[in-house]
Specification:
eight-stranded mixed beta sheet, 4 domains, about 15% strand, single chain, about 850 residues, rod-shaped, six-stranded mixed beta sheet, 21 helices, alpha/beta, Rossmann fold
């Protein structure tokens, strides 16, 4: 008869042994399948059931015994508790799976058959009815059990942790310790799922994989050599990698395999203390095989382990401490465990000779290495303890909730087994209680126990004892800012790292001032560091790209910070500005002295020659030219920007027009003196004045049009100079600026040409040759001004224009007026009409 109840599965978040629960009138029997070959020669139960047929030699993991004690302790507590299953005695059966699918299927069928032989679907009575199953420590064993139970629709409370890898990945990527890690995963479907999960999660958070290795499995003895060779290659690859962090995902016994790695290498490991930061998931248990008793486990010293949060139930330590082969007759496992753990044998009364050390029974469990046995409950054992209590509370609730459940009491009969399965499943999903450790055990809507993870630092001493130090916690139910906590300062790292926080990256971090450039064909964590280009910075390590500073800032020399730009303009407070101002004022003063000298000697022939009024106009204009330079010094204002270029253009045009007028006057004067010349009518002040006024008005019209269309204005230039913000007068339209310069240049070229043609005319008052030199200087200055103006930036552009103004004005002043001042001041005897006439006669 096959039960038709629907399968019921609940997840208990945390590894624990498969415990199979029976319903029997008057008693509940809990049966268990040990997840791997835990004991050498027997699988006898505490209820003294006959053991199944077992192989004579097995690879043994003595630590499994603690999980059995957790089960026995939980049953003992429940039987001694008056408010849980009162008047009912709880018992259990235990079978061994030998990590073998065939053996696991057989053990599960024996549980279902109600006899100590496999008779599926045979029901002879209502006693020893299997009512529920608690899943196994190893996922594959739980899967094998579930395959059979699914046929019979028996509720299963299974523990196959699926989120440990994701939680671990969350913590690592949140804390961002390392970006270059290796991964070792068990070689099965769960391992593949884990690798797929962490590969995606870690990659999204900037973590790359140096290697991904599989923990090999073997089904036959003949495969051991291949497994060892694979392990040797794995070890050498791990130790030669630059990755200092290795993430391990496996079954509970995987640590025992990892202990093989140092002994499988082809290299001498005697003095090699190199290690890695080993990170283990909650599925892995710190355990060893029997033959690894004296193996050094300090390779894993400083490991970071994720374990299910637990507290030792009250009385468990004392319960374990009093376990002894001499006072626990009902314990069918303790003698085998004792012999394997302490490497001794109990004398056999039938044997004539005993080989090996004799077990006295007085050995102390606390002296065993941590990989063999721990006096305190581990996370795996705690899960078993909580699972038994969860099932007991569910059965208690089912037996007391309604009168129809009276059949579950001692001596009753259960007529509808399917209904029992459904009721048990429903109650398990809604059960909530406080266990003896004071923790609340309850299931969420997904049937998962709301449990947190502790982050444990393994400290392994030379005597192989294990000390677990809690360094952090992951609590999915806490607020987001408190979900992950860790204290790096209390972590003890492997001595290889000299107690410094280990560094694990494919490439040294790119320092501020540089950015990452991924190496072609390599993971994105492997990159070169390149200096930020000019104008950009990076102010953090490992930046993917450099960023530009704002317009108000510029990069430092190291290109790691932005420095505020200084405000720059040609001011009176800096040496360049004050120097130009002094030069301008000095030339203005000299011009004033020259003008005063000419005014004082206005009746002398040398002053009267070549149009006295034009001479005064030119001197006044040169004075204004020198003073005009002062408009360009100081912080640009609206009014100064409007006056700068317009004043400069008009004043200089007047000055050049005066020079042109003087030159034309000289030529006309000599031409008009020839007999029969018609030029006499043009000689006089009227022509000179007309030249000055007309030429100046044209320039004034150009400047007026400029001011009307696009006048100059104060502007801020943030881009021309990398470290300065330039305050300047924007000319508005460059075309009009160059129109002013071009017109002034045209006047200067005409003046130069006319003066050059008249340079050899005889007369001591002939100014043509002096004007020629002055125009040569003037044109040279302004021709060199254009490229200089275009090639400089900031206040130096203004300085170039001021220098051109001063140099060209000084050229006019010096070349035209210095010879006359020389005669007036130093050679006054030459400044008379008689002397001039005699000199002219001598020249003729």
């Amino acid at each position: 008869m096959v039960c038709q109840a629907h399968i019921a599965k609940c997840r208990l978040q945390g590894p624990h042994r498969p415990l199979h629960i029976y319903h029997q009138p008057g008693d509940f029997i809990i049966g268990g399948i040990v997840s791997h070959g835990g004991f050498l020669s027997t699988s006898a139960t505490f209820m003294e059931e006959p053991p199944p047929v077992l192989p004579e030699e097995l690879v043994v993991v003595p630590k499994v015994y603690q999980h059995i004690l957790a089960l026995a302790f939980a049953v003992k507590e429940i039987n001694g508790c008056s408010h849980i299953l009162p008047n009912i005695t709880l018992g259990f059966h235990i079978y061994d799976s030998y990590t073998n699918a065939r053996k696991t299927y057989l053990a599960t069928l024996i549980l279902l058959s109600k006899l100590e032989k496999c008779v599926p679907n045979y029901v002879c009575d209502t006693e020893n009815n299997l009512t529920g199953v608690i899943g196994g420590l190893n996922s594959e064993i739980s899967f094998y059990v579930a395959t059979i139970l699914d046929i019979y629709k028996i509720p299963q409370e299974t523990d196959i942790p699926r989120s440990t890898g994701g939680i671990m990945g969350f913590s690592l990527t949140t804390y961002v310790w390392w970006t270059w890690i290796g991964v070792i995963a068990v070689d099965n479907d769960n391992g593949e799922r884990f690798v797929h999960t962490v590969l995606q999660l870690f990659s999204q958070n900037g973590i790359c994989f140096a290697f991904i290795e599989r923990i090999p499995n073997f089904s036959f003895i003949s495969e051991i050599n291949d497994m060892l060779q694979q392990g040797a290659k794995m070890h050498d690859k791990i130790m030669s990698s630059k990755a200092n962090v290795v993430v391990n995902y496996g079954e509970s016994y995987s640590m025992a395999f990892l202990k093989w790695l140092p002994y499988l290498s082809e290299h001498d490991m005697t003095n090699n203390v190199k290690s890695k930061v080993w990170i283990t998931t909650a599925e892995i248990e710190f355990s060893s095989f029997v033959y690894q008793r004296n193996w050094d486990s300090r390779l894993f010293n400083g490991a970071i382990a994720f374990e299910i949060h637990f507290r030792d139930p009250l009385g468990f330590h004392q319960y374990v401490e009093h376990r002894n082969p001499s006072n626990t007759d009902a314990d069918g496992f303790i003698r085998d465990f004792w012999q394997q753990a302490f490497d001794c044998v109990f004398p056999d009364i039938t044997a004539h000779q005993v080989e090996g050390n004799i077990c006295t029974g007085e050995e102390k469990l606390e002296n065993l290495p941590g990989s063999f046995f721990e006096m305190s409950m581990t996370g795996h054992s705690y899960s078993i303890h909580s699972a038994v209590y969860a099932m007991a509370h569910a059965l208690h609730a089912m037996s007391t909730s309604r009168p129809r459940h009276i059949g579950m009491t001692y001596g009753g009969r259960v007529k509808n087994q399917n209904q029992l399965f459904w009721q048990l499943h429903h109650i398990l999903r809604t059960i909530s209680f406080n266990n003896t450790a004071g923790d609340v055990v309850s299931f969420n809507k997904n049937g998962e126990v709301a449990s947190s993870l502790d982050i444990i630092n393994w400290i392994i001493f030379s005597n192989q004892s294990l000390h677990r130090v809690r360094v952090g916690r992951i609590d999915p139910g806490a607020p987001s800012d408190q979900a992950f906590t860790i204290d790096k300062e209390v972590i003890t790292w492997h001595s290889w790292f000299n107690q410094a926080s280990p560094f694990s990256a494919c490439t040294e971090s790119c320092q501020p001032g540089s950015s990452k450039k991924v190496k072609e064909g390599k993971p994105f964590c492997c990159y070169d560091c390149i200096l930020c280009p000019e104008g950009k910075i990076s102010n953090q390590e490992d930046m993917n790209d450099c960023t530009k500073c704002s317009d108000e800032n510029y990069p430092s020399k190291e290109r790691n910070i932005c420095i505020p730009k200084s405000i720059s303009f040609l001011s009176y407070e800096e040496p360049l500005g004050i120097s130009l101002a002094i030069v301008a004022l000095s030339f203005a003063f000299i011009t004033t002295l020259v003008l005063g000298t000419f005014l004082k000697n206005h009746k002398t022939p040398i002053v009267k020659a070549n149009n006295q009024n034009i001479t005064y106009t030119l001197l006044v204009t040169l004075l204004l030219c020198f003073l005009c330079a002062l408009l360009f010094i100081g912080q640009p204002k609206k009014m100064t920007c409007l006056l700068q270029q317009a004043a400069f253009g008009i004043i200089f045009s007047v000055a050049v027009s005066c020079v042109l007028a003087k030159t034309v006057t000289v030529i006309l004067a000599f031409t008009a003196t020839k007999p029969g010349s018609r030029m006499r009518m043009w000689v006089g002040r009227r022509l000179a004045n007309s030249i000055v006024i007309s030429c100046s008005l044209i320039q004034a019209a150009i400047c007026t049009l400029w001011l009307a269309i696009s006048p100059p204005f104060p502007d801020v230039d943030k881009h021309s100079m990398p470290e300065e913000i330039i305050l300047e007068c924007n000319v508005g339209t460059v075309i009009m600026f160059y129109c002013v310069l071009s017109y002034m240049g045209l006047l200067a070229i005409i003046s130069f040409t006319v003066a050059f043609l008249a340079r050899k005319l005889p007369d001591i008052f002939n100014e043509a040759k002096f004007i020629t030199f002055s125009m040569l200087v003037f044109c040279s200055v302004w021709l060199s001004f254009v490229p200089s103006y275009l090639s400089t930036k900031g206040k130096y552009t203004v300085a170039v224009e001021i220098f051109s103004i001063l140099a060209s004005s000084a050229g006019l002043l010096g070349c035209i007026f210095s010879p006359k001042c020389y005669i007036i001041l130093l050679r006054p005897e030459l400044n008379n009409r008689e002397q001039i006439i005699s000199i002219n006669k001598m020249k003729n």
